[in-house]
Give the backbone structure.
Amino acid sequence: MTISRRSLLRLGGILAAVFTTTHLSVASAQLAEPARLGPSADTIEAARAGGLDLTRLPSSPGLHVVALEDSPFFGPMAERMRGEIAEQARAGSYVTEAAGVPDLRIATQTTQPALASSQPDKRYHWLAQILPHLRYAPLSLRGTRLEDLAMVEATTAGGVVDGRWSGVTRSWDVAGLGFVQLDESEYRESGGSITVVKEWLNSDVNGYPATLKTMRSPDGATLVSLSWVTDTTDIRLDLQPINAEAVEANQKAVLDLARSLGADG
């Protein structure tokens, strides 16, 4: 499953969208004709086999909040999501398949940057290095616990217009907390369409409805994920915690961090 930010769908707070048959370059789907018509018949069929009806995705730009029964999810996929929503509400976390919880540190080390085609193996470790490649200013970290930390790395994300990208992913190792990753992508000027499943909205970030969840695999891997959509940007803050058993404390730490982002304006 890979992402096209021309037509986004929030699956339980994790961005999911136009299904393809591989996990290869998201960027390649963005480089040409960003306003092109929807997915191909083959893509629609592949998505349907996985429980996602792409023909039910709203085509108009902007944010769309829909009930699960009206969303593109159907069959076993929709039933699994109902179960995860219920378990998250009841227990504060839910158990997913072993492959469902990524190791963010490994993913950071192995994922190719979006600019790999023009700058092979180029990775950024200071915000000033990546700013010239972005179409907008990323969220400010001033006054947050991330402000004085060295980034593990930053990579471009989202779509590209005139050589500049609509999004950026940044990551940090936070002592006493864990591995933190912040992903943001501007969608308003890009004409993006974002669909959010209403039942997954269980929190808020500075007045914006948000999805907060903790995924746990049978082998103990854990990921705390908070996602929300502002008037201009879709954002996800992930934590791979040091102490996986501290569910409430980890979620509070992620919420507190999210609410402090951009606070200086």
In short: Residues 1-36, 112-121 have pLDDT under 50 and may be disordered.
